Amino acid sequence: MTKQERRTLDVTSVTGQDIYKILPDLARLRMVVFRDWPYLYDGTLDYEQTYLEKFAAAKGAVVVTAYDGGEMVGASTGAPMIEHADDFGEPFRRAGYDLSKIFYCGESVLLKSHRGFGLGHAFFDGREAQAHNLGGFTHSTFCRVIRPDDHPLKPAEYAPLDPFWTKRGYAPAPGIIAAYDWKDVDQPAETTHPMQFWMKALA
């Protein structure tokens, strides 16, 4: 896709009941993108349906979508942290944060064919705008999986997104690490994965 073609992409923030309409597209996209490094997620549609319907029911949730014609090529989710799983909120509670003041930027998934055209910024812009529109949030946060550098499935050409996140004003939150279980593509069953949170103070 060229930069000229990127102009035809439809980037929209979806909220409320409209989120349910896009869940099938979002589920399929998550399964494709998260199967690659660093998540190596071996998902099922049944799990996706349960997980995403719970997310869609969260008050204040948003999905920033990118469509190329009729195909969802990218999406990014966000919602108030207080609406999320206790496993994610607990590290913040232990660190003394008020969960009601933290907006959680969930996953961003984007097909390889559409990377490098600014959609990453559009996804953060849309989620941070939702936090501002809802009001009352002092921080925005997201998390990334921690993988060993010598993992056998790590691609030699992999470039972490740390510089991009730093440019957006985020930094690793010392000691705020959660754990989440899923099945890796090279494993027979679910395993536990450490997730490092990054944070940014909202103006």
Write the layout of secondary structure elements.
Elements: H1 3-6, E1 10-15, H2 18-33, H3 45-56, E2 62-68, E3 71-80, H4 86-94, E4 102-110, H5 119-134, E5 139-145, H6 162-167, E6 171-183, E7 190-201
Parallel strand pairs: 4-5
Antiparallel strand pairs: 1-2, 2-3, 3-4, 5-7, 6-7
Helix pairs in contact: 2-3
What is the H-and-E element order? HEHHEEHEHEHEE
Spatial order of strands in the largest sheet = 1-2-3-4-5-7-6
CATH C-level category: Alpha Beta
Instruction: Give the amount of beta strand, in percent.
Output: 25-35%
The number of helices is 6
Q: Could you say what the CATH architecture is?
A: 3-Layer(aba) Sandwich
Count of β-strands: 7
CATH topology name, in short, is: Aminopeptidase
Mean pLDDT over the full residue set: 93
Tell me about the largest β-sheet.
7 strands, mixed
Helix content: 25-40%
- By CATH's scheme, which homologous superfamily applies? Gcn5-related N-acetyltransferase (GNAT)
Rg on CA atoms, Å:
16 Å
Shape: globular
Structural class: alpha+beta
